Amino acid sequence: MKRIFISTGEVSGDLQGSLLVTALYQNAQKQGIEIEVVALGGVKMAAAGAKLLGDTTGIGSMGIVEHFAFMGPTFKLQSKARQYLQENPPDAIILIDYMGPNMFIGKFVKQTFPEIPVFYYIAPQQWVYAASDNDTKKIVNFTDRLFAVFPFEASFYAEKGANVKFVGHPLVDRMATCPTRSDARATLGITDEEIAIALIPASRWQELKYLMPAIFEAAQKLQTVLPNVRFWVPLSREEYRDSIQTAIGQYQLQAKLISDQPDAVLAAADLAITKCGTVSLELGLLSVPHLVIYKFNKVTAWIARNILRVTFPFISPVNLAEMKPIVAELIQEEANADRIVAESLALLQNVDRRNKMLADYAEMRTAFGPPGVCDRVANEILLLL
């Protein structure tokens, strides 16, 4: 039996990991290879067949100050992972995004078990930010094979000396299984006369604090000028239910919280107002017009701007795919209710702007290449085993 250890974090990593775990088991069975997948991940990966060493979906954060609350749980899981790997050396390591913890695991494995191949799938976005070149070198040094999901990611890491292959984005496959717009609207009971807006405020605790108020205040204003609008909120984590449901009541929104059919909410929407993350790419692949917002703790924002001098061209994966402004990004001070309302009304009422966005989505989809991403990655890993 071949044992594969996968490490990822947050809700999006759990989703990507689950798709890969499924592909690994399916392709291993076809090839007559017996495998076991042990992972740091979440419930989706466990449902796909991985044996969870720890759940990392609830300890993710973005930002300096924001990370402080999760340092203890993160270090505890890192220690648990190191002990497990020492006692049960796997036949391969697969790292998915989750930069800080995965750099720790990657360096530890390469130093302790240099013969174990380390694969990085969906690498840290060093190619986006004016990030430390030293960190990039470390990633290249401990990674035996890097599977890039963005074209610019592949060229960046290749220039830095990585053994890299562009494989396309796995969401191209996943979103193809989503319901059609008409089926999704029928499932949710949305009439032709209603404007359905998806509100996607959070997959991390910090986003409930920094993003949800601005998104819900904007929704409150939108329903005063659009009497036929209804809001739909897909629930990313059960722990957020009470906070989101309470906020819906406080802002008196004509909104429904959906936990069992999140894909239907995205597919049915006329517009989405979303936090930054994988969901933006899901919306783009479903051809749903949307805008992206993000806010950090003010201290984090000040340090990033004035000390670290962090710069980035875009934050949305839709924009990063083509390196051009396909969807609007409202960051920090711009992520306020008035700006969100203005951008939302423009997308709902300006036909030319919607059509331009839809055309750009089509180009983006083409750039990701043919379907079968997870199968291609799984087969390469199995071949190298």
Please indicate the count of domains: 2
Structural category is alpha/beta
Under the CATH scheme, which architecture of the largest domain would be assigned? 3-Layer(aba) Sandwich
Q: Can you count the helices?
A: 19
Low-confidence stretches: none
How far apart the termini lie comes to 11 Å
**What is the CATH H-level superfamily of the largest domain?**
Glycogen Phosphorylase B
Spatial order of the strands in the main sheet? Answer: 3-2-1-4-5-6-7
Major sheet, described briefly? 7 strands, parallel
What's the CATH C level of the largest domain? Alpha Beta
Which fold name corresponds to the CATH topology of the largest domain?
Rossmann fold
Characterize the overall form.
Answer: globular
- Rg value: 21 Å
Helical residue percent band = 40-55%
Strand percent estimate:
15-25%
Structure summary, number of beta strands: 13
What's the average pLDDT?
Answer: 91
Task: Walk me through this protein's architecture.
With 385 residues, the protein is an alpha/beta fold. The chain folds into 2 domains: 2-168 and 369-384, Glycogen Phosphorylase B (Rossmann fold, 3-Layer(aba) Sandwich), CATH 3.40.50; 175-367, Glycogen Phosphorylase B (Rossmann fold, 3-Layer(aba) Sandwich), CATH 3.40.50.2000. The chain contains 19 helices and 13 strands. The strands form 2 sheets. The chain has a 7-stranded parallel sheet with strand order 3-2-1-4-5-6-7, sandwiched between helices. The chain has a 6-stranded parallel sheet with strand order 10-9-8-11-12-13, with helices on both faces. α6 (133-142) links the parallel β5 (118-121) and β6 (145-148). α1 (10-31) packs across α19 (373-384), α9 crosses α13 (262-268) and α11 packs across α17 (337-349). The N and C termini lie close together (11 Å). The relative contact order is 0.13.
